[in-house]
Specification:
This protein has helices at 2-12, 16-33, 36-44, 49-53, 68-71, 76-87, 92-110, 112-120. It has 129 residues and is mostly helical. It starts with a helix and ends in a 9-residue tail after the last helix.
């Protein structure tokens, strides 16, 4: 996960602690809304992902969104995720970039097929992959 944290930090221009919290928000979306079996398979290919989801001090409620374009399909969840990302200091454009970076990393680590299957299992996000 350190590679992803550094990648997000450098791309978005935020410190690594903020990047770690923001990535945890994205992984929490995947765990909460994705197909359980697929998510377990995905997280097995992403060592440390589960730790970021369960990181103490991160918001526990309503963290469910990935990219601004697709999030509108999730209704209230999109507002909630942006609220979570905003609370860690990200604006809408940074949130969108974060989503792209995380998605690209997940594809690299877990493969395109598994990534598509997981994202496809989350209402409103299937157009991302």
């Amino acid at each position: 996960m350190q590679e992803l944290i550094e990648r997000v930090s450098g791309t978005i221009g935020i410190d690594s602690a903020t990047a770690e919290k923001a990535i945890g928000i994205i992984f929490r979306l995947i765990r909460r809304h994705g197909d359980d079996g697929l998510v377990r398979e995905l997280f097995a290919k992403l060592p440390g992902a589960e730790t970021l989801v369960d990181e103490p001090g991160q918001q526990k409620s309503g963290l469910s969104g990935m990219l601004s374009g697709a999030l509108s399909a999730l209704g209230g969840a999109s507002a909630t995720v942006f609220s979570g990302l905003k609370s860690v200091g990200l604006d809408r454009e940074q949130s969108k970039t974060l989503g792209h970076e995380v998605l690209d990393y997940v594809k690299e680590q877990a493969g395109e097929t598994l990534t598509k299957n997981v994202i496809g299992s989350i209402d409103g996000l299937s157009d991302l992959v």
